[in-house]
Specification:
Elements: H1 6-12, E1 20-24, H2 25-38, E2 44-47, H3 54-61, E3 66-71, H4 74-81, E4 87-89, H5 96-103, H6 106-111, E5 112-116, H7 119-132, E6 136-141, E7 146-148, E8 153-155, H8 165-176, E9 181-188, H9 191-194, H10 204-233, E10 240-243, H11 249-253, E11 260-263, H12 265-268, E12 285-296, E13 299-303, E14 320-323, E15 328-329, E16 339-343, E17 355-359, E18 372-377, E19 380-386
Parallel strand pairs: 1-18, 2-3, 2-11, 3-4, 4-5, 5-6, 6-9, 9-10, 10-11
Antiparallel strand pairs: 1-12, 7-8, 12-13, 12-17, 13-16, 14-17, 15-16, 18-19
Length: about 400
């Protein structure tokens, strides 16, 4: 198991004033290569929301095994498509201004594919295509969740109303019947497998339940996805079928109907991926805060630090202090907007002005807090790359 060389990272950044964010290029390269191997020869479409830095996107897309971008908003996709020629919007949009801009620009319309899962999406997109004059490409978003008891039990994200082959075929027909729309792909993201660790700390019974649920879900989705693709291809040919995520690359790649995978979080390796048995990426992204108080002999307080991850509120959404060793958040204050008290055996050794390195729970959300990433190779900074925020792009 690889251990991060924090001493080298600290030497590289000694002249920086916290708060700042660091990307370890050696770890990034290791993680990209690991993801490529796990994908089994199928290309990985890079999930841009997990990166949120155009410089890093460029670097990763230049690596073997990565092809195309999976964007998270249409305005982001339009911005990226000025440079990149294959951008799939991973979520539906109701942004009519952005749709009209897309449909009015032949080059952008040829580079961007829109997501849809209901007739209301198609009506909006078709209206824009008619007004703009250029046909628009459509990808159907299949619900990949595991459902039972008539939908009363639900495991996975509440994404799309398209669940059955019949529903997907009907919407495919609705696409081809509308002037100005072209069906090119289908996507299904299995969040209950790709985004849920199967080796979470705590109850053995809970771990066993997660593993059992994921096993059932893999088998169910494999059969259903194949049936859905067959049904949709009765209506129109598909250029691509996208599936998976960092946590499910192997199992999704093994499905013959899947032509490409979607992933990105594994590049930065946030703490979310510490809870998987099948793979172990190297932590690559960090942020650093400075100690400004010593409220007691066994506590040290850093300025800021309250950079939680999205999702249901809980301690597993909070950042983790990882260096120096022996630090932990306090249960009552957690990570705060203006200050974060730390305890544990390492806290007694900290002085005012010392630095504490943190890992985020998720990947790209870190970039919403900083204007730039300091790219470190070994013990030196090789570049400073603006994040989306640093380029003035507040996209969601």
């Amino acid at each position: 198991m690889h251990t991060t060389d924090f001493a080298a990272l600290d030497r590289a950044t000694r002249d920086l004033q916290p708060p700042f964010a660091v990307l370890d290029l050696g770890a990034l390269q290791h993680n990209a290569e690991s993801m490529r191997r796990r994908a089994g020869g199928k290309p990985i479409r890079l999930a841009s929301k997990s990166v949120r830095c155009r410089s890093v996107i460029r670097s990763v897309l230049a690596m073997p095994g990565f092809r195309g971008i999976l964007a998270f908003t249409l305005p982001e996709a339009l911005w990226l498509a000025e440079e990149f020629d294959d951008v799939l919007v991973g979520y539906p949009t109701a942004d009519d201004d952005a749709l009209h801009r897309l449909a009015a620009d032949r080059r952008l319309a040829s580079r961007v594919t829109l997501m849809a899962d209901c007739p209301a999406h198609l009506e909006r997109i078709a209206a824009a295509a008619t007004r703009g004059g250029h046909p628009l490409k459509i990808c159907l978003d299949l619900d990949a969740s595991l459902q039972s008891l008539g939908g009363r039990l639900h495991f996975g994200a509440h994404r799309s109303p398209l669940h059955s082959p019949e529903q997907a075929r009907d919407l495919a027909r609705a696409v081809v019947e509308r002037s100005g729309l072209r069906l090119v792909g289908l996507m299904a993201y299995e969040a209950q497998i790709a985004g849920v660790g199967d080796n979470t700390p705590g109850s053995p019974l809970r771990r066993a339940a997660i593993r059992a649920m994921q096993g059932v879900s893999r088998r169910e989705l494999r059969l259903r996805r194949k049936a859905v693709i067959s049904a949709v291809r009765e209506v129109a040919p598909l250029e691509f079928v996208n599936g998976g995520g960092t946590g499910s690359l192997e199992s999704t790649a093994a499905e013959s109907v899947v032509t490409e995978l979607g992933a990105g979080s594994g590049l930065y390796a946030p703490t979310l991926f510490d809870t998987y048995r099948g793979f172990r990426p190297r932590p690559a992204a960090f942020f650093v805060q400075s100690v400004v108080r010593r409220p007691s002999a066994d506590r040290a307080t850093v300025l800021g630090g309250g950079w939680p991850a999205s999702g249901a509120a809980g301690r597993d959404r909070l950042p983790t202090p990882v260096w120096p060793a022996g630090l932990q958040l306090t249960p009552l204050e957690g990570a705060g907007e203006v200050q974060t008290p730390l305890t544990g055996p390492g806290a007694a050794r900290l002085a005012v002005g010392d630095r504490v390195w943190f890992r985020h729970t998720k990947a790209g959300e870190l970039c919403e807090r900083v204007n730039e990433l300091h790219l470190v190779d070994g013990d030196r900074i090789t570049a400073v790359a603006p994040t989306y925020r640093g380029e003035g792009q507040a996209l969601l």
